């Protein structure tokens, strides 16, 4: 890893922490809660189906499954590196949750939240689902040598999963922002962006 890549990863990690600190109290927290209420509103049955359908794509188990598919198709390095990044991101996210201890939206306001999925057990900040997915997709996409447009589409998918976590009622927007920054920081620390794999 070169110094520029390391500096970018450290900067993204610091930005993630700044989001967490900035929205843990005061005006930042109030603004985050206002944004949550807007994004958690009922947008109709189609939106409910879309967001409840995609939200678990960010679970660590989805990354395990995707890595298995990549390995089976000859992209073994992409599978291993992507899963390593996802696992590191998940572990860092769980550690950060224990530091911030932010209650989930449905815990902070039980009567005012539309909760569309089973309630997760851990605390709220950062959101692990978009973090894990972005980290996996970024690293696996780089290692597999996907074109830039395809990698951009995968980043968009991670963003949709992040939005879903707010819509289904389990995270605040700042949780998602912090998670995405954390996921990208880990991805940049793990992968140089130079593709190595080729299909078997």
Tell me what the structure shows.
The protein has helices spanning 3-22, 26-39, 45-54, 60-72, 76-100, 105-108, 128-143, 148-167, 173-190. It is an all-alpha fold and 200 residues long. The chain has a single domain (3-190), classed as Up-down Bundle (Vanadium-containing Chloroperoxidase, domain 1), CATH 1.20.144. Helix 4 runs antiparallel to helix 5. The two termini are 27 Å apart. The model has no long low-confidence stretch (mean pLDDT 93).
Q: Give the CA-based shape.
A: globular
CATH architecture: Up-down Bundle
Query: What fold name goes in the CATH topology slot?
Result: Vanadium-containing Chloroperoxidase, domain 1
CATH class: Mainly Alpha
Largest sheet geometry: none
* Weakly predicted, low-confidence segments: none
Beta strands, count: 0
Q: Averaging pLDDT over every residue, what do you get? A: 93
**Number of helical runs?**
9
What structural category arises from helix and sheet content?
mainly alpha
Give the strand content: under 5%
The string of secondary-structure elements, in order, is: HHHHHHHHH
Radius of gyration: 17 Å
Helix content: over 70%
Q: Characteristics of this structure?
A:
200 residues; Vanadium-containing Chloroperoxidase, domain 1; globular
In short:
With 200 residues, the chain is mostly helical. It has a single domain (3-190), classed as Up-down Bundle (Vanadium-containing Chloroperoxidase, domain 1). It contains 9 helices and no strands.
